[in-house]
Predict the structure.
Amino acid sequence: MRVVSPVPGVVRSLSDVPDPVFADLVVGPGVAVEPQHLERITVRAPCDGVVAAVHPHAFVISAAPRTAVLVHVGIDTVTLNGQGFTVFATVGARVTAGDRVLTWSPVGVASAGLSTLCPVIALQAEPGQVLPLVAPGAEVDAGDPVLDWPHQV
């Protein structure tokens, strides 16, 4: 399964994420994308599947049994209580990679003193199962492939 970037920006290693849950791969392997600091950005589905969970600051797309991708929009953004985020997807909705899930303001998140890094995580995967397709420091557009998950169970 190919996982695409949900936002345009610069690919970063998960070790650069200022949250040990992501940096230490506690929830799974993946990459982070540092979005352009724009007033408004659309966050798109990283793969085909069903919306398993959605919050203003994060969502999960279930692609198959035991195969799900988490997109976390910024770090500690749950503290904003949805301010600056607009959710368009609903739990149970079928999505295609690239479909709009939510919008947010990286400028607003940064002005609140929070990181705008967006981890894209292969939930329930082992680190060796997920292959990065883009090196840290590379620029990507929303929809560009960033991970290959060939051995989902």
